Every structure is written in C-alpha cells, then in structure tokens.
Amino acid sequence: MMPFTVLSSGAVTSAAHRSRRPRTAGVAATLTLLVGLAAVGGCTPGRDDAPEAAGSSTGAGSAGPAAPSGAAPDASAVPVGSSAHTIEVDQRQRTYRLYRPGSADLGAPVPLVVMLHGAAGTGEQAEQAYGWTGQADRDGFVVAFPDGVQRAWAAGPGCCGAPAREGVDDVRFVTELVDRIGTQLPVDPARTYVTGISNGGLLAYRLACDTSIFAAVGAVATTLTGQCPDPAPVSVLHIHGQQDKTMPYGGGPGRRDNGGTGRNPVRIDGPPTPELAARWRGVDRCAKPTTTTDGPVTRTTATCPDGRAVELVTIADAGHQWPGGRPNPPRAQQLLNLDPPSTALNATETIWRFFHDHPKPAGG
Predict the structure, then answer these.
(1) Compositional bias (Low complexity) at which positions (predicted)?
(2) pLDDT band, very low/low/confident/very high, at 330 (cuts 50, 70, 90)
(3) Distance separating alpha carbons of residues 13 and 268, to the nearest angstrom
(4) Domain boundaries defined on the chain
(5) Closest by alpha carbon to 160, among 222, 232, 230, 227?
C-alpha cells in the first residue's frame, strides 16, 4: 500500500481520523463540502418513479435490538419503499432514510449504497434530487441517505459547520449505520458502496481512509484534504467539472461557502483532481491509465490488481453540481453558489455501473 498525505491550507485543516471500528485492510479519507440542492427553498420535487414513503421506524445503536452474530437479518422494520430511521450514536439521535425497492431479492445478499448529501442538504433532499431510488428500482439494491448534523458533515478538523465545531464523529455514524442496516437486511459486504457530493464527498473519502468497509467510492465535485497514511485498496470513481469554483478541478482554495450553517464559512483547499486520482492509482497499484474523450467528457481509467479500478471523469463545461441531477431552485442556486447540473452524463447511472463492476475481491 502506498501512503499519501494531502496537506490542507486556508480555512480547513485536517488530521488523520481513525475509525473506532476495527479495520481489516486499511484507511480511506473523504472530504466533501457543498452539494446541489433540489429540496431547499421550498422546492420538494418527487422521487424519480419511486413508491410513496412507507412509514418510519426508530431504533438506537445502543438500545435497539441488534441481531446476534450469525443471526438472519430481520427485514420487518424496513418496509418496501422509503422509510425514516433513527439510530443513537455517541449519545446523539442520528437520522437517515432507507430505500428498499420492491425489486430487491432478500433471499440473497443485496448491494447497499450509502449516499452522502452535500452541505446545506439532507438525506431526503439527496433522495429526491439525484435519481438513486429509480436506479435502485431498476437494479435491485438498497440505498441509505443519512442526515448530517445541521445539514453538514464532519470531514476533518475545521470542516464543516456545526459537526466540526461540536466534534461529531461522522465516520462512526456511517460505520454504525451500515452495521445496523446489516441486522435488518441481507446486505452483501462485498457490494457495500459509498458516494457523496461536495461535503458528502469529503466524508466519502474520509471513510475510505479510516475504514475498509466499502468496496468502492463514488466522489462527485469534491476533493481530499488532510492525512490518509495507510489507505486500504479501494476502487475509486471521481467525477468533477473543470468549471467548479467551490472545489477547483485544478486544486487550491475554492471560493468561500456557507459550510452548511451560514455561521461558519469554510474554504476547501485540495490537490489538483488529476493528482488525487494518480495518488489513488498508487494506493491500488494500478496499471498506466488510458484516456478517452467524447465531447465535453474525458475519462481516465486504470485497471488495478484484484479487479479494482480508478477512474476520473472530467466534464469540461460543468461546475459544482451533480451531473444529471434535478435543477436547483433559483434562490438556492444564488444563495449557495450552486451551478446548474450538467447534462453531459448521468452521474448516478455512471457511479452505479462502476459500483456494479467493482465488488470487493474474495478475501479483500
């Protein structure tokens, strides 16, 4: 494994964060700031052809009934469709939405995707905005949409908003959330994935650095800062627009944004995106990458041992947004420095295809 450190400057400073869950192979880091907002400012678009919400369930990580080791998952608390859930982590009630499509065959292990919203977003907003429920309906996987504390994620010291100020451990939250879902549904550990945009993408990389529970990471409009000294091999797909001014494609400090609360502006300073992809290729010991261009979309792809891959998708005319997502309300776009979604590709379809093709190798 090839260690690497991405130094942070400006308003965000980062240090290594070790998950409290035992790590079996390595450490992965993710930092994400802002995400395109489709459910902010009074706009509440419906999910893409998804069934109506089917109730809610509540549980606590410390008090809720956990399945004994080796026990079969109990799906009774997870209705078909979208449901709201609560888990207690570090004496704080954390919330998330869980989408179980009717097409999921619970007679066999099913894939799980964890979708992390950006700053100022919510799990419900991400569920509505990016098309993951429709993709899950078509392909039979489960999707979790966690909520950050006050609409932001702690992705390293200084980032971001209330979670950073209050010392929230979001790596632990996501780790325990995945464990919890595994007691309710037959989740396949070899096909458990994480994706996120902006602040959510930062957390996705942090999870890649600090845990080894995910087979692949899908990072959108984000970067990595801080230390990632011993990352486990993991497949990585990074999608980024060259016109992104919040987390610049060319690296360096981006424009200052609200960090999820408006009271603690942050500026993220990361490496050039191609350099970040190259560092993950080093971690995964990949072959020399190949590059193809189709219109505004350039793909730089490397194959790696054990069936892994690292792919960078560059969109020439895209900014800080989720390609193929729902358009942002004009007021939210203005207030939060959001860019309109690119139509050059559908990020959700692209990420799922990558996830589908890159499960964890046997024993890894």
Answers:
(1) 52-84
(2) confident
(3) 9
(4) 4-357
(5) 222
Q: Which pLDDT does position 16 carry in this prediction?
A: 32
- CB-based contacts of 138: which residues, under 8 Å, 6+ apart? 103
pLDDT at 253: 84
268-296 pLDDT per residue, tens: 888 999 999 999 999 999 999 999 999 99
H-type alpha helices, 239-338: 273-284, 330-335
Which secondary structure element, helix H or strand E, spans residue 208, and what is its range?
A: helix 199-210
Give strand pairing partners of 97.
84, 145
| Distance in angstroms (rounded) separating the CA atoms of residues 141 and 26 | 26
CA dihedral 138→152→175→204, nearest 10 degrees, is 60
Cα distances (Å, whole numbers) of residue 298 to 282, 286, 301: 21, 19, 10
**CATH architecture assigned to 4-357:** 3-Layer(aba) Sandwich (3.40)
Strand partners, 224: none
- In one letter, which amino acid is 269? D
Rounded CA-CA distance 82/48 in Å is 12
What is the token pair recorded at 1?
A: 């494994």
pTM (2 decimals)? Answer: 0.83
In the block, tokens 């399945």 appear at 67
Cα 151 vs. chain centroid, distance in angstroms? Answer: 14
User: Sorting pLDDT into bands at 50, 70 and 90, what band is 9?
Assistant: very low
> Is the preceding peptide bond at 209 cis, omega within 30 degrees of 0?
no
